[in-house]
Amino acid sequence: MPVNYVTPSAASLAPVAGVRIGIAEAGIRKKGRRDLTLIEVDEGSRVAGVFTKNRFCAAPVHVCRAHLAQASVRALVINTGIANAGTGEQGMAAARETCEGVAKLLEVAPNQVLPFSTGVILEQLPVDRLVAGLPAAAADLRADGWFDAAHAIMTTDTVAKAASRSVELGGRTVTLTGMSKGAGMIRPNMATMLGFIATDVHIAQDMLEGLVREVADLSFNSITVDGDTSTNDAFVVIATGQAENAEIIDEQSNGYAAFREALAGIAIELAQALVRDGEGATKFIEVAVEGGRDRDECRAVAYAVSHSPLVKTAFFASDPNLGRILAAVGYAGIDDLDVGKVSVWLSSAGEEVLVAERGGRATGYREEDGARIMQRAEIGVRIALARGDAAATVWTCDFSYDYVKINAEYRS
Amino acid sequence: MPVNYVTPSAASLAPVAGVRIGIAEAGIRKKGRRDLTLIEVDEGSRVAGVFTKNRFCAAPVHVCRAHLAQASVRALVINTGIANAGTGEQGMAAARETCEGVAKLLEVAPNQVLPFSTGVILEQLPVDRLVAGLPAAAADLRADGWFDAAHAIMTTDTVAKAASRSVELGGRTVTLTGMSKGAGMIRPNMATMLGFIATDVHIAQDMLEGLVREVADLSFNSITVDGDTSTNDAFVVIATGQAENAEIIDEQSNGYAAFREALAGIAIELAQALVRDGEGATKFIEVAVEGGRDRDECRAVAYAVSHSPLVKTAFFASDPNLGRILAAVGYAGIDDLDVGKVSVWLSSAGEEVLVAERGGRATGYREEDGARIMQRAEIGVRIALARGDAAATVWTCDFSYDYVKINAEYRS
């Protein structure tokens, strides 16, 4: 059960002009499940993406990077079941054959297709079954396919994640609709596995690329479930331009700020949805670090706290075992940290409690106040380092019996 | 239940000339348990230690560092129950009062006493109860106190860890006896919480200090249970000099190599015992990385694999989910790693299986071979990077339901 997250209804997911989506059952790894998604985008659309920094990145990630550099994108194809990672030359050939299959059906060039895979690593993709499933996905292409696609890209996810929002830019309504998947192997490094957002905004290619990197950093690159960076992480934004707003060509363009806010907002919502549905999660935790010298050291502290199995099991147990948070701050790698200046607050539902100050237990802190907040499903941890003006926020979940159960049983 | 580890019998732990140990029940945190250990060492003994690099290091760690720099050590005092970390000035005062209490009883100076604490962080040490317990511990001082002390320093440990060995140096028999404790918050950085080795070897102070750092790196700094570096880690070696071997003054000294081997051997045994008794452990895993450019990158890869919750849950499930190992190698931080050259072997009980080669599944690999090895309690993972001559080994355990249970319930 995800923490405070309900899949939006099909009706709430707005179609994006210039984007059609279809799904199919290709039997990639198991029969009888929707495991193939095809996204067709109109000519003239602009696409930008960021991908995993894992050195064992999957074959489709290699192909995506190459195709994005070569040609304008006309289609995306996503399979679940097999990640096509650690599959060598055979895996590269399978990713290319997938693109060729899509290209033939949609009458585009193979390098106008971006392939994405998610699932088990180190097993070969049954590309024949995938390609055999493509005609059914193509026949299913429709503007309102988001709801079904958000389900079709799930693996260990318990709910589908998707969101829509709209923003007025110079009198034109711009729509953004996106979906994401992933519940384990989540500590994205550049982007998570998998986030897709489409919008009809008209924006220059270089501006779109810059925004994708910036927004990825604030959203998918600021979450963690288990600290494991996937081999297949990808975050892709499609801009079809069909809203007919005045093109956004620089940061001074009319609508830039509003579009950036809308894009960051939907990306953060989709990224947080992954954590809310993190494997075995019972709590959604925001770790906000402030007063650092730079954003990097704030992120290092936030991730140390967010990755600590001891902190995560304490949240699971609703135990205000605050020493574990301090210990994680202490080993986060800031060699000259003056722990005598560190303060920590716990918060939930508008209530904030100072639990540690000057590196120790806060004078006025009462265990029952900490315990009351730890009982809640959404908890904030605020850590003030008191050595600068930088800040960073990371979202994570707790660590429960079910995390172990899910991952011990995943392949069986 | 620890993995293949049985506490040695009291009789197998050899006394070390010049060292006496006594224990007591001081009621530090809970009544009716042995929670106080006193170690008295003869005048003329040499002592060296390495301590946690956690910035939130505990008050006793600060006091140990200061006292080691000021005076020759005559006593060590160890309490369990409360870690005296994150306790500010009051905690520093408590650590100093502890030393004063010991000094008065044993008629030494307070800065000749090293204090050690382990237990809950962020709670104040009840120093009055600790000091009140000291006379009973002093009355209990005896050369054969190791067995009881190894039990008295336990916290979430399920078994006591101790070992003895002896080595001939130029016709003199040198004895080494040590003990260690710790099962969670184990990813030592300089030393673990807590390792003590005493020996009657005659060795120069600077040689002892160098050896302690070197041996810590090979033993306590090469293990991990959960990746959490404790606030209280300490590894201390006491050399009383009473074996009357010719003093070891440099690496050419007679007996240096033999003593180094004996010291490293007992330290590795004690460090591995912590992993065998790691919280919830059902498997003992050696991750050996070879063919790196330097030891640091080999350690980074070994720790990435050893810390991955996905790898650890796969070991718990005896599931040869090898893609998780490759994914961890890929995100270990070697930016120019050529994954096409990486090979991975699984081994157990003398049987070794090549599971991945050239970055993918090995041609001859059969799932049943991997599955057979994963069933065993002691498993080796060997990873060849094929880019240099450096190597490093890390020992870890799997991640089970019981890890979550133990840490969710630790304070209750």
Automatic annotation (TrEMBL), chains A, B:
Enumerate the subcellular locations listed in this protein's record, separating them with semicolons: Cytoplasm
Principal cellular location given in the protein's record: cytoplasm
Q: Which residues bind substrate?
A: 155, 181, 192, 279, 407, 412
Enzymatic reactions: L-glutamate + acetyl-CoA = N-acetyl-L-glutamate + CoA + H(+); N(2)-acetyl-L-ornithine + L-glutamate = N-acetyl-L-glutamate + L-ornithine
GO molecular function, one example?
Answer: L-glutamate N-acetyltransferase activity
Reading the lineage from the top rank, the first entry is Bacteria
Q: What are the site positions for Involved in the stabilization of negative charge on the oxyanion by the formation of the oxyanion hole? A: 118-119
Name the active site residues: 192 (nucleophile)
Gene Ontology CC annotation, any one: cytoplasm
Q: What EC number(s) has UniProt assigned to this enzyme? A: 2.3.1.35, 2.3.1.1
Positions of the record's site feature: Cleavage:
191-192
Sorted keywords for this record are: Acyltransferase, Amino-acid biosynthesis, Arginine biosynthesis, Autocatalytic cleavage, Cytoplasm, Multifunctional enzyme, Transferase
> One biological-process term from Gene Ontology?
ornithine biosynthetic process
Its pathway is: Amino-acid biosynthesis; L-arginine biosynthesis; L-ornithine and N-acetyl-L-glutamate from L-glutamate and N(2)-acetyl-L-ornithine (cyclic): step 1/1; Amino-acid biosynthesis; L-arginine biosynthesis; N(2)-acetyl-L-ornithine from L-glutamate: step 1/4
Matching NCBIfam families: ArgJ, PRK05388.1
Q: Which family does it belong to?
A: Belongs to the ArgJ family.
Q: How does it assemble?
A: Heterotetramer of two alpha and two beta chains.
Main function: Catalyzes two activities which are involved in the cyclic version of arginine biosynthesis: the synthesis of N-acetylglutamate from glutamate and acetyl-CoA as the acetyl donor, and of ornithine by transacetylation between N(2)-acetylornithine and glutamate.
Q: What is this protein called?
A: Arginine biosynthesis bifunctional protein ArgJ
Organism name: Pseudazoarcus pumilus
Question: What does the record give as the organism's lineage?
Answer: Bacteria, Pseudomonadati, Pseudomonadota, Betaproteobacteria, Rhodocyclales
